[in-house]
Design goal:
88 residues, mainly beta, 40% strand, globular
């Protein structure tokens, strides 16, 4: 099992280099890293619409906007997160 090295880590504050979120001022915190896929989930970036089927929890169904993982190569680190992360 090889460990895949990435330039972004959970807790880092990042900025997008390209794509819809690359306006230059927008930053977000890395919530989760998927090294095997080379993707990162960033707070406030890459929103997608997900259609929900009718269920007991959601009786009307509907459309939900949520964050999706984006390519780590499109991100640059602005501020490193602390080494001592809180367990969630």
């Amino acid at each position: 099992m090889n460990k895949i090295k990435m330039h972004v880590h959970r807790g880092d504050v990042v900025r997008a280099l390209s794509g819809a979120d690359a306006d230059g001022k927008k930053t977000g915190k890395v919530l989760k890293v998927y090294p095997s896929k080379g993707r990162v989930l960033v707070e406030g970036f890459n929103f997608v619409k997900k259609h929900l089927r009718k269920s007991q929890d959601n009786p009307n169904g509907g459309i939900v906007t949520k964050e999706a993982p984006m390519a780590a190569s499109k991100l640059v680190v602005v501020t490193r997160g602390s080494k001592k992360m809180d367990k969630e």
